[in-house]
Design brief:
The protein is mainly β and 478 residues long. It folds into three domains: 1-24 and 304-478, Jelly Rolls, CATH 2.60.120; 31-137, no CATH class; 159-302, Jelly Rolls (Sandwich), CATH 2.60.120. It has five helices and 27 strands. The strands form seven sheets. Strands 3, 4, 7, 11, 12 and 14 form a six-stranded antiparallel β-sheet that branches. The protein starts with a strand and ends in a 25-residue tail after the last helix.
């Protein structure tokens, strides 16, 4: 059964109590209840946390600088684990999940964030000498060193493509350039259920690095697929193009809804249109791997993807050495829309982004998330939490910027910054994705959600301003 709770929504210093909000249970196990055990141990309490929230990155030959698969590997990092998890959703926090937990929608897919009990358990473990505990309490391993089958978040891919290798010099200005084209080799149209991209480079895994950006040279990549007779980008047209989610440093995989597969056509190529490349202090050779999980032959999607880009690329003026600067952007939805993901994209001064939905007199904060230019995340809403917004809804994007010395991502806090592609310039975009709904689909989605959650007329559902409305098409429904 759904749980109800009272929730306060906060934006720009104001606070208003909105009402009873239905939320889904988190479904995560607590590592240790206060007072329930006399000692927190690695085997019983910490290992399950690491398996769920840390080890996908913290294992050999992955993106993190140290492995946390075993007690021997994790023990030296106990104090660091305590300090980094205590940051919660602030910059530098581990795991890197920056959704603010005191406002907006709280139910997301693949959420690795820790509960307060888990954060307290890690602190207690570190403060008490990081004891191993009984090895028989260890859960079965989730990852095995040297095994590749568990290395993809999407599961074993059906198709893996590799970009051309590039070389980035140890120092130099940011580069923004095409990487080339990659033939898919497909002889028939296939629809993609999930896609994941990872960078492979020759940066030493045990080398020191203060940020994940120091472990990569691709900051992000815009790419698409095209059907062409010759592999020449100038031959690409909008009629033969599929646009794919942007790859960004630290970003998670894209798992599309079951009815919303995206086509990868026969005879197509990946056009690696524009890569943002940056130097990291050492000459680096790198390439990208594109992993696709495919639907069965004969699958057809039943929904339409839309571009709901909310952004401000013109009116950007970021002052030097100034905290709490704001940027704003607005978009009016031209059709009923189901928002699937929220993906903040800013540059070095960015520290926070919020998304509001305005429908008539209703103003709802959908999501607020911290932002770190070294860890760009896409947040996928749970199915019964994904915003269902009617045509005419105004999306309001609010960005928060900090150019004081406290923001270590800013190269020189004395410089003014406008809009632009380089990290020393600024962007302000929500790259999240959405699907369009017809009148019938919109009414059906809301009716089914109302039934699943057992909503009453007094419930406030964040992101679904019309969920309590019974439409004429539903008059005969029980």
């Amino acid at each position: 059964m759904p749980m109800t709770r009272r929730q306060t929504f906060r934006l720009a210093g104001s606070s208003v109590l909105v009402g009873t909000v239905l939320t889904l249970s988190a479904g995560t196990a607590m590592a240790a209840q206060p007072g329930a055990v006399t000692e927190v141990t690695f085997s019983r309490d910490i290992a399950p946390i690491l398996q769920r929230s840390c080890q996908h990155c913290h294992r050999p030959d992955s993106v993190a600088p140290m492995s946390l698969l075993t007690y021997e590997e994790a023990r030296p990092w106990a104090r660091a684990m305590k300090s980094r998890t205590a940051l919660r959703n602030e910059r530098g926090a581990m795991p890197p999940w920056f959704i603010e937990k005191d406002l907006g929608i709280q139910d997301y897919k693949d959420d690795p964030s820790l509960t307060e009990e888990e954060i307290a358990a890690i602190a207690s473990w570190a403060d008490n000498g990081a004891p191993r505990g009984n090895p028989e309490d260890l859960p079965p391993p989730k990852f095995v060193a040297g095994a590749d089958e568990a290395s993809w978040r999407i599961g074993t891919p059906d198709l893996v493509l590799r970009s051309p290798e590039i070389t980035v010099h140890a120092s130099g200005a940011d580069r923004w350039e095409p990487v080339g084209v990659v033939p898919t080799g497909l002889t028939e149209d296939r629809y993609v259920a999930a896609v994941e991209i990872r960078e492979v480079n020759d940066i030493p895994r045990d080398g020191a690095s203060s940020t994940v950006g120091g472990r990569f040279v691709f900051h992000h990549l815009n790419y698409s697929s095209h059907v062409v007779e010759v592999e020449q980008p100038e031959a690409f047209t909008g009629d033969t193009t599929t646009v794919w989610p942007v790859h960004e440093v630290g970003r998670n995989a894209d798992i599309f809804p079951p009815d919303a597969g995206r086509i990868l056509a026969a005879g197509s190529v990946l056009n690696l249109e524009t890569a943002h490349l940056h130097s990291n202090g050492g000459e680096t050779k790198a390439y990208l791997e594109f992993a696709f999980k495919l639907h069965p032959v004969g699958y057809k999607p039943s929904v339409t993807w839309i571009n709901r880009l909310t952004a401000n690329g013109v009116d950007i003026s970021i002052k030097p050495t100034t905290p709490d600067q704001q940027l704003h952007a607005y978009t009016v939805l031209e059709q009923h829309t189901k928002i699937l993901t929220f993906e903040p994209h800013m540059h070095a001064p960015g520290v926070r982004m919020c998304l509001e939905a305005i429908w008539g007199h209703s103003v709802q904060t959908l999501t607020c998330a911290g932002y770190d230019h070294n860890w760009v995340r896409s947040y996928a809403y749970e199915d019964d939490a994904a915003p269902l917004l009617p045509e005419g809804t105004i999306l309001h994007l609010i960005g928060f910027m900090d150019t004081t010395p406290g923001n270590r991502n800013v190269a020189d806090t004395r410089n003014w910054g406008g809009g632009g592609r380089r990290s020393v310039a600024n962007m302000f975009i929500d790259l999240g994705e959405a699907i369009a709904l017809t009148d019938e689909e919109f009414e059906q989605e809301m009716g089914e959600r109302r039934d699943r959650l057992g909503l009453t007329k007094n419930d406030v559902v964040i992101g679904c301003p019309l969920c309590q409305v019974r439409f004429p098409s539903q008059e005969s429904a029980p």
